[in-house]
Amino acid sequence: MIKLTNINKYYRQGDHRFHVLHDINLSVDQGELVAIIGESGSGKSTLINIIGFLDDDFSGTYFYEDHPIHDYTRKQFSHLQNQNVGFVFQNFKLIREATVAENVALPLLYTGKRRREIGDRVTAVLDQVGLHGYEDQLPQNMSGGQQQRVSIARAIVGHPHFLIADEPTGALDTETSQEIMNLFKRLNRDEGTTIIMVTHDPHVAAQCERVVKIIDGRVVSDSLEVHHADK
C-alpha cells in the first residue's frame, strides 16, 4: 500500500541546510500495525508528515497504492490526504467549544455527506470507541482518555485507508494508555485498520506487530514482534 524509496528530506535555515531524513526505504502493507520509534529529533515526525501527505517537499519516490504521489496535482494531493488518512495526535486537537458529535462529524462535513447520514455514522463510531451516549458532551469536560477516544472516532469516521497516530498515549497515565492501545489493537484486529504509530515508549511499541527504529534520520532496524499475547 505504502512504499517509500530513497527518501531524503532537507530543511533550510538561513544559509544552512540540514539533512533530516537519509535514504529512507520503507513499505507498509494493508492491515499492518506498525510502530515507528525514536527519540526526539530522530526524524520520526518528519517521516510521518511525508507518509500522511502533509509534506511533499522531499527527494526520492513515494508510491501509494502503486502510484507515485509526485504525479498528482495540488488539488489531487489534497484529496489524497482527505480521503485516505486519519490522524490521531498526542494533544487530541479537538475543538473545545464543539460537542463530541460535532468534533467527530468534521471530516464528513468536508465531504458533503447528508446530515442524517453523518448522524448515523457518528453514533456508530462513538459506539465503536466506547463512547455511546456522549454525543452532546463537551471535550473540555472529559478525561484525557475520553478525549483521545473522541480523537480516534474523528480519525476513523470517514473510513480512511490508514491511520497515523502521533504519540497517542504520550499525555495519558499508564492505565489509560493501555486502554487506548487496546482500542487501537482492536481496530487493527477486528476492522483490519492499517495503523502507523509514532512513539518513544518501548512498551507501546512492543504491542505493535512491527517496530521500525529511527536514529538521526536513518532506519536502523525493522523487526516483527513475536509476542502478541494481549492483542
From TrEMBL:
Gene3D superfamilies cross-referenced by the UniProt entry: P-loop containing nucleotide triphosphate hydrolases
Keywords assigned by UniProt?
Answer: Amino-acid transport, ATP-binding, Nucleotide-binding, Transport
Taxonomic placement: Bacteria, Bacillati, Bacillota, Bacilli, Lactobacillales
Name of the protein this chain belongs to:
Abc transporter atp-binding component
Q: In its UniProt record, which GO terms are filed under biological process?
A: amino acid transport
The record's annotation in Pfam families points to: ABC_tran (PF00005)
Domain ABC transporter intervals: 2-231
A GO molecular function term, named singly, is:
ATP hydrolysis activity
Entry's PANTHER family? ABC TRANSPORTER ATP-BINDING PROTEIN MG467-RELATED, LIPOPROTEIN-RELEASING SYSTEM ATP-BINDING PROTEIN LOLD
- InterPro entries in the cross-refs: AAA+_ATPase (IPR003593), ABC_transporter-like_ATP-bd (IPR003439), ABC_transporter-like_CS (IPR017871), MacB-like_ATP-bd (IPR017911), P-loop_NTPase (IPR027417)
Tell me which family the UniProt entry assigns to this protein.
Belongs to the ABC transporter superfamily.
GO CC terms: membrane protein complex
